[in-house]
Known about the structure:
The protein has 203 residues and is of the alpha+beta class. The protein has helices at 10-22, 41-46, 66-76, 87-115, 127-148, 161-172, 186-196, and strands at 2-5, 27-30, 54-56, 62-63. The chain folds into 2 domains: 2-76, 3-Layer(aba) Sandwich (Glutaredoxin), CATH 3.40.30.10; 87-202, Glutathione S-transferase Yfyf (Class Pi), Chain A, domain 2 (Up-down Bundle), CATH 1.20.1050.
Amino acid sequence: MLLYHDPRAPNPRRVRIFLAEKNVAYDTIEVLIAASAHQTAEFRRKNPLALLPVLELDDGRVLRESIAICRYIEELHPEPNLFGADAWERAQIEMWNRHAELELLIPISQVFRNTNKFWEGKIKQAPDFGSIMRELVAGRFDWLEHELAQRPYLAGNRFSVADITALCAIDFGKVASIRIDAATHPALAAWHQRVSERPSTKA
C-alpha cells in the first residue's frame, strides 16, 4: 500500500496513527500542500478534489477519505479493534468520531484557513468567520472537559478512532494558537497527555 500524505496535515496523520496502531506496513509519498503538490495534474488523477490523504492499493485502486481508509484497514486487520466490538460500542465510537470531526477538526481547520497568513492569496479568507469558529472551539473544550472528567477516552474506557480524530484536531490547533489550558481544563489535558503518550502518535 502507498499513502500519499503531508506530514503536517491533520487528516493524513489520522491515517498514519491508525495504521501504526494496527502495525500495518505501508510506503509513503509526501505531497506537500505548502508547495502546491496536491494541485498538480498527476496528483489530481488520484484525487480530483486535491485533498489528502490518498491510499493507493497494490492493484491501483485508491481510497481518498480518511475514515474510509481507516474502515478498510479495520476490515483487513480487525485487531486491535478501533471502531467498536458490538453494536452499542460501534455506535458510541461513530458518534464520538463525528463529534470530533464536526465540533473540533472542522472548526479548528476553519480558524486556520480564515486567519492564518499561510492562506493569504491562496483562498478567500473570512477573518470574522475564523473568530467565530475560535469561540466555538473554546466552548467545545468546556464541553469535552465535562465529558472527559467521567471516563478516560472519548467513547468509553478504551482508545478508539474517535480519540485519534480528536487528538489530531487539537494538535493541529497549535497552528492557529489554539491550545488546551490545563488549569481550566484538567481532564481534557490529562486525556491529551494520555493519548499523546501512545507510540502510534509519533507516526
